[in-house]
Fold these 4 entries.
Entry 1:
Amino acid sequence: MSNLSAERKALRAKIRGQRRALSRQARELAAARVARVVANEFHIYPRQRVAIYSPLPDELNVAPLLELLVAHRCDIYLPRLVDLRRRRMRFFPVSRAMRPNRLGILEPVGAVSIGVRWLDLVFVPIVGFDNTGMRLGMGAGYYDRAFAYRRSRQTWRGPRLIGIAYAFQQIDRIEAAAHDVRLDAIATDEGVLQCPTG
């Protein structure tokens, strides 16, 4: 294992431990605050194509954020893992029919996906982040692969990638790997961090 991989593994373990230690009340309060931050800081409008995620048990709950998007009549999408070996995912419209994947994450059942370039906003789960928009994820690279084209674009880079996290998940510096795709902003329970790409 490389030094970078070992460092990231240790950071993931530390931050995920901090998340698991939160009380239910603290989790609920933070989730509500994040939804208010998004409502106040981002322009949400009807028919906007917005991707969100189904959280793992220790990730920040996005139920209040989902309620906000529904109230604004957004077109809402969720990721679905479509190729585990190559670590590929696509985004499908939210549907009443949901099923857990092999990782236990709920995914929409449907046949028609949307190309990632047609999304307007993507709310991204985070394990850790720094003030440059560098994101520490779970390590599988699904989001980095889905939005890899952004690393080579000099002008329009859509969609806007917004990380969702507790404020304590911020790290002084995350060393970039060649495949990393930076976030445009991070919404936390303490406000929004606008990143250089945003």
Entry 2:
Amino acid sequence: MKLKLPKSSDIKNKTVLVRVDYNVPLKKDSKGILEVSNDERISASLDTINFLLKNNAKVVLMSHLGRPKSIDDNQFSLKPVAEYMKKKLGLPVIFSNDCIGKATENDVFIAKNGEIVLLENLRFHNGEQKNDSDFSKNLSKLADIYINEAFSTSHRSHASIVGVAKHLPSFAGFSIEKEVSTFTTMMDEPDRPLVIILGGAKISDKVGAIEHLAKIADIVLVGGAVANSFIKAEGLEVYKSFIEDASADLKKKNINYVDLASSLIEDHKSERMLMDGYIPLPKIVYPIDVVAGYSLDETSKKRTEIIDLTKENGKHNKNLLYLDIGPNTIKLYQEIISNAKTIFWNGPMGVWENPILDNGSKKIAASVALSSANTIIGGGDTIACASHFNLDKQYDYVSAAGGAALDFLSGKKLPGLVPLEE
């Protein structure tokens, strides 16, 4: 996939409408005023914004923030983001109290070339998520050119993602192009071995990615609650460990996620990765031991135990939960990671927020960070986990895109990317 990037001649002295993802965390300061607590998503858009300002464009930024139920949900206003950009980043930002209408059109009209207008939260209007044609047209009125710089929302057919692109010449921002090229290279021409590490709580988020990536990866390492479906698929006891319920579509076909895990194991059972050139490993690897406890909020290590899944006989306490990968699994995964040339990691290995249950996530995060491979991590939980262990700056590429990245890695065409293709 090759995306259209804007040239100076496309945007010089023009008004440019840019869809950014400023769905950033906010916190209250000592005076109770909301302020930005993490600016990574803002920073990701700066190359495109600075390019536009350098070419004397008038920049109109639009984004959503959270899930407001009405225009009165002030805690979801983008005004704190405008203040942050103005005071902390020194950018010439004007905040508009709405994203469509006469007052907003006037805010954009009186702004000078070389200035930025940040529109109020798109989701204060129902037309955004409904991809309403009138809402799309009203947004399009504000500019001459459209740029999508929000990869993380490009899997949604919303007005600001696909609707506006029908009315204006459309381009990809520099950040979105980097996301797409990074993932495309990883899938099409990775340095091998390509090791995929998938964890987290929900297998439903990752089924498509597992199915697609298993075809191109040399090996897939599974952890977190996602691994429970694979463990159970092998006929092993998982006790009260979390196994996600199947979606409505799967239930209609009488399929659950354990069955899906079983079919993935079956589909790839004849494929092997040779570690160190002579040790054959299955294509999909899941834990050989786990740390089990009785609660995600466990406060005593004495209430946890290591269960060897190679010898599991179902005689442990029936109330146990599998909450982290065990020490033998950590060693195995570390050895595989040390042999990798390309690594993609999405999803923690256990309950990383709890110091009693964080060892697997901590060790795997560190092993990926210290690897000589090309390392790519993605997803909000993964970034939060890596940041918790002060490792988030030690990877070659960090993608904040969660659902969009997983859809892209599933081989799906993202609606927001289609209008941007050359």
Entry 3:
Amino acid sequence: MKHSILAILVVLVCGLIVMAAGNAGDQSLPATANDYKILAPITHGDLTIFPVVSDKTHDTSNFITLDEGIRSGDVVVTEVGNLHSTMRRRPPYQVRPYSGAEVNRLVLVNNSKHPLILLAGEVVTGGKQDRVVGKDRIVPAESDPVDLSVFCVEHGRWTETSAKFDTHASVMLQPSVRKQAMAEQDQQKVWDAVGNSRAQMSSAVVAAPPAAVGGGGSGVGSGSGAGLGPDPYAMRLRELDSTTSYAKARENKAVQAQVDSIVEPMQKSYESVIKQLRNQNAVGVVVAVKGHIVWADMFASSALLAKYWPKLLDSYATEALTMPGARGDVSIKEAQEFLENWQAKHEVVDSEPGLYRQRELVGYKFKAFQLTSLLAKAAFDLHLSKMAD
């Protein structure tokens, strides 16, 4: 079989990476029907990611992310019925009647001159309770107030802590919780998944030695560390067990230490792969935990992937930290088969003409969501997420 020089180089580099990771024998495979090419896996502990590259690339520089918009102040998210001071002066628009705050609705205004990308799974904190974006969508530049479909990820609180929401922690729900919001669209299932995740985080912290979670003292149950005041390890466990907020649980220093122990080596390995394949266009990853493929995220450009990568990697690492079961192995062939399988038995399309289209595909053992921009100068697929069912 004839190979181009580039293909041979890719195989050789991936082979070296696999050998270094102790996975000798796997090879990168030809591109899928979608022009996605799966590279050799990067594994640390229970988490495995397969970088995905593509020959296709798009200019996504005109879009802004939710983190960028809120950080700049150009994007404002608030409770329904609390729209004051969210818009800059623009020509009159038709105001729809808003009443009081609602669990599954927020209002967003994009005051920037750029279209905004919202991804399902992005968490906003504040208001009367923390929420998560329920679906991928695009909000136009200089928008009127837009209704957001959201789910609560902080069961129990209904007291306003701030008029506007923030994303200061840049939290993305882990796949098992994100799935409940995107595919099941069921508030109770989201709450149940959040509760289960928090319980697993607590168990993971308890199972780890105090030094591994940044704590001092003698461990759980001790009131002080050698007379130096409260034991920080025990304090962090109490904080974790007392909160109902997914974001606060993820921000807990003991949990963050555990997540970082997975993220940091994975990030170094990922950067090494992309550096060696700098002529390739890294657009996404296939994710496996304990030998089971659970998710895939693909973007329109490597630049867009880079913007979301830190919060995505954190979410994958959290899944690895909290998913029960024994460790297993997963092959590059399985990852490619997962990415090639798009045979849908059911499809639902949600569209705003001239702005975006979202397709939900339900197939054998998978669900996928495809966000396509319909903007005149940016008509292409922006984000594709796929979950194992």
Entry 4:
Amino acid sequence: MRFFPLLALLLPGLAWAAPITDAQRAEIDSRVARILASTGVPSVSIAVVTDGTLAYAQAYGDQRRDGSPPSVTRRYPIASISKQFTAAALLMLEADGKLSLDDPVAKFLPALTAADRITVRQLLAHTSGYRDYWPQDFDFALMAEPVTPMQILERWAKTPLDYEPGTQYQYSNTGYTAAGLIAEQAAKEPLFDYLQRRVFEPLRMDVLDTDQGLGPDDAVGTHRYALGPLRNTKPTAPGWLFAMGELAMTPTDLARWNVARLTRSLMPPGLWTAQETNAAPVDAPGPYGLGVRLDDVNGRPRVRHDGALAGFLSVNRVYPKDGAAITVLTSGGFSNAQEAIADAIEAIVFAAADETAQARALYDMLSAGRIDRSLFTKNGNDYFTEQALADYAASLAPLGPPVAVTLRGKKQLRGGLTVERFNFKFEDRTLLAVLRAEPGTGKVEQFTIYPSGE
């Protein structure tokens, strides 16, 4: 499935991530299966964009907790990833002349504390000073009962500020609740309806407002007490997620939005740039735009946000200079599986820049007792007999995934082969791997693993 094709000639200077290969898909599947098994998270659904198009979408595990086959068409709440949509709505309303992000909140919600000194932009950048009404990682008792957005503001945005507006960064769902009500005043229609008309329908996204409840075919959220059994999560009562976390969708729906960001379509390019411009003070934990976090990984700029909701954890990462994006939605409100899976996919997608990627992929194969023989020379294939593969699997699989993989020294050349050595570090030991390959074809002559003595 390919959509919103890129016009690379219109976007010069971008080095697009290459399309995903069958081997990369297999490696993603293997990594995901391991992470789900080690964390106990029941399901995950992913979408990967490379070369500006949807390259891979896959679902894993028991999404409904009924044994039905996993499907990428099942929706998951995306929680705070929703904030970038609220911010985008306000950016579009500004472009249409309906408001200014530098308007004081008092223009729309005059009864709130310091409303004449707080701007709409500060609400979106988490610099307003309004105290966050939901800092916990669980639903507190009040969230079992329905609420209106104004009732949230009455309780949390009419109290003294936590700090002077614009002087600090402090994540605030309260600020986004106010921003959503301002968007509705300016648009003269419900926020979800505005997004449906201006974003979801043009991008062909099948999005649900979680206040209406998830559908009978959507994912079921789960939680655990410590290391106890999985338990289904009771949905958050209507109203609490408004504007700050109310959307549910499939990973491919979110991929469509990510592609629009990459191609600077749907909205004028300047609005995307405005959303991705840091608006946080210099002493903030990190750059934050308008509904998106800004950072880089290995020098690669990244626009991202995570989402946490009772029973669900998610992460969405976009790499504007690489034409790539990674979406991971899980149905477990515990562990760090969503980040671990996103990290694994990130390493696979950008394997060319990862000096340990090939060694890790080969190790994963051997710990599972198999190899892709098309990757090896004749000598390499001759070495890996059925007995060798069985011994590798029997001795490596019990170790689980390595804690870290590092290159020892520099790549060398000997006998017409490149030579690299890697440390595979585990909790209680370190193994040494030796990789020899043909320089031209990249085919593997040797990949052997020994105790390192460290």
